[in-house]
TrEMBL record:
InterPro entries: P-loop_NTPase. This is Sulfotransferase domain-containing protein. It comes from Rhizobium oryziradicis. SUPFAM superfamilies: P-loop containing nucleoside triphosphate hydrolases.
Length: 309
């Protein structure tokens, strides 16, 4: 359907729907938690060129969050030129930014369930603080491609599910949303507090990152299946006060971001208590909960309403 709109999403080592290998190799190496593939950056460049040059598409689309996490904008430009980019071609860099308290919680969830992180949330926040300093992180992209080439979008409506990010992105591409049959639901959901603690225990084992995350999709399914059953602890990982303190540390950066890229004073709405989802606190990770997690992984998926607490 994209190609019918003149949009080419080149099949260059796509994994998990994104061009992650391109991002890693442009950076110079794979992340410790990532599974490398055998082809070199030169190989992928040649594949990209072989797909792009004969195509009649008017738009070439590349996508990976790792272009942001491991930025090499000058190397990306070189790759695009080698793949056929002309000086008259327009480059648009779309970056969805998330309010930093939510971004840290989401990143922590992802890093534990899929990247082998064994650290606490507070340790991870301190270590990764610069990752969500958007003004600083986007500056190299602005230096390379120009401020007017960067389109910054607030992710808040999509995290709150009041809008669909796919609709928004298709509109940016100029594609007819009504012609796309998009599945309902969300990919790569979070895991609750207890299951996160269980995965952190697994991450301490002397296993490869790939083996540590072997069951992360089942654990995501378990979180969804147990919601509302009052069995697992599902309280927010950050209190309102902790979120306010965290957001204050990004206030100056966010002001620069809003002024530079959006020509406005602010980008995110003020934090309110209603923004923090309610949860049920239930005694931490007990033996009974561990047994239920292992049973779910083993394929025993009885209703949570029948489990004695």
């Amino acid at each position: 359907m994209l190609i019918e709109h003149g949009i080419l999403y080149p099949e260059v080592s796509i994994r998990g729907f994104g061009h992650h290998d391109l991002a890693f190799l442009l950076h110079g190496q794979y992340a410790k938690w990532a599974t490398p593939q055998d082809r070199s950056l030169t190989d992928l460049r040649d594949i990209l060129r072989g797909i792009v040059l004969p195509s009649a598409a008017t738009t070439i689309l590349l996508s990976s969050e790792n272009f942001y996490v491991y930025p090499k904008p000058s190397a990306l430009r070189s790759l695009l030129v080698e793949a056929g980019l002309h000086s008259s071609d327009e480059i648009v860099i779309v970056c969805y930014v998330r309010r930093q308290d939510d971004a840290h919680v989401s990143w922590y969830n992802q890093s534990v369930k899929a990247q082998g992180n064994t650290s606490s949330l507070n340790t991870t926040i301190i270590r990764e603080h610069g990752l969500w300093d958007y003004a600083t992180r986007l500056q190299p992209w602005a230096d390379e491609f120009g401020i007017n080439s960067i389109l910054v979008r607030d992710y808040t409506p999509f995290s709150q599910r009041t809008a669909d990010i796919r609709d928004d992105f298709l509109a940016i591409l100029g594609a007819d949303r009504d012609r796309f049959h998009l599945p309902a639901g969300r990919e790569n959901e979070r895991v609750n507090r207890d299951i996160l603690a269980f995965q952190r225990w697994v991450n301490h084992l002397p296993l490869s990152a790939k083996k540590k995350r072997r069951y992360h999709k089942q654990l995501i399914e378990l979180t969804a299946a147990s919601e509302g059953a009052q069995f697992f602890d599902d309280t927010p990982l950050l209190s309102l006060a902790a979120r306010e303190t965290l957001l204050a540390s990004y206030a100056a950066s966010n002001a620069v971001l809003a002024k530079m890229y959006l020509k406005q004073e602010t980008i995110f709405d003020p934090l309110e208590e209603k923004d923090i989802a309610a949860g049920t606190a239930l005694s931490g990770l007990t033996i009974r909960k561990i047994f239920r997690i292992l049973a779910w992984i083993a394929g025993f998926r009885n209703s949570f309403q029948t489990i004695p607490r």
